[in-house]
Amino acid sequence: EIVLTQSPATLSLSPGERATLSCRASQSVSSFLAWYQQKPGQAPRLLIYDASNRATGIPARFSGSGSGADFTLTISSLEPEDFAVYYCQQRSNWPLTFGGGTKVEIK
Amino acid sequence: QVQLVESGGGVVQPGRSLTLSCAASGFTFSSYGMHWVRQAPGKGLEWVAVIWYDGNRKYYADSVKGRFTISRDNSKNTLYLQMNSLRAEDTAAYYCARSSGYYVSGTYYMDNWFDPWGQGTLVTVSS
């Protein structure tokens, strides 16, 4: 099973700041990695797939990068609605696995 | 618009069974693979099971293999999760989610990204 490790667990930032979230895989997943956003009481929402492609309707301030085992989700300038938990997920191997999440909170 | 609506959650005793449903609308259900993903209270996401668009292939997480069965009825645009021998650790919100597929040289592949998700249904296993 591929283990995804997200860091940091919590990121405390102010609106307008840049957020950089990391996801590291226990083995290469090529570019088969996605990012999801989850707000309290809501289902997750797909943000990024195939490491760097924004899903439909996702604002350009969200970007993904990386390949192999190291990936980054960047939010260029945090909006109030961006404070949430973010998960990475790989589809390279079965079983599909998620990282433990990074909570982006208001400082 | 694309919509997934789960139902069937509730409180169930350990060892008992429960069946979840996911009603799909706004898209051609029979053309998409479907997943179940769960989230224990206050915890992260765990993929549970997948079924191909035609029901011919299924995969399960080791934690539910042999106890849970995923199925679909394309005539009713509905996905199911039959859960047997439930345990306390199965307590979670259960989400259904859609995945797209594509053909390469005549072979069908699923992208296995989850988009969109339903709102979830809560299953509590407790005596």
Structural category of chain A: mainly beta
Question: What is the N-to-C order of secondary-structure elements of chain A (H for helix, E for strand)?
Answer: EEEEEEEEEEE
Terminus-to-terminus distance of chain B? 40 Å
Structural class of chain B: mainly beta
Count of helices of chain A? 0
Termini separation of chain A comes to 35 Å
Assembly type of the shown chains?
A: heterodimer
State mean pLDDT of chain A (0 to 100 scale).
Answer: 97
What is shown here, in short?
Chain A is an all-beta fold. Chain A is built from no helices and 11 strands.
Tell me what the structure shows:
The complex is a heterodimer of chains A (107) and B (127). Chain A is mainly β. Chain A has strands spanning 4-7, 10-13, 19-25, 33-38, 45-49, 53-54, 62-67, 70-75, 85-90, 97-98, 102-106. The model of chain A has no long low-confidence stretch (mean pLDDT 97). Chain B contains no helices and twelve strands. Chain B has strands spanning 3-7, 10-12, 18-25, 33-39, 45-51, 58-60, 68-73, 78-83, 92-99, 101-104, 107-110, 121-125. Chain B is globular. The interface between A and B is medium-sized, with 21 and 20 residues.
Summarize the helices and strands and which ones pair or pack:
The complex is a heterodimer of chains A (107) and B (127).
Chain A: E1 4-7, E2 10-13, E3 19-25, E4 33-38, E5 45-49, E6 53-54, E7 62-67, E8 70-75, E9 85-90, E10 97-98, E11 102-106
Parallel strand pairs in A: 2-11
Antiparallel strand pairs in A: 1-3, 3-8, 4-5, 4-9, 5-6, 7-8, 9-10, 9-11
Chain B: E1 3-7, E2 10-12, E3 18-25, E4 33-39, E5 45-51, E6 58-60, E7 68-73, E8 78-83, E9 92-99, E10 101-104, E11 107-110, E12 121-125
Parallel strand pairs in B: 2-12
Antiparallel strand pairs in B: 1-3, 3-8, 4-5, 4-9, 5-6, 7-8, 9-12, 10-11
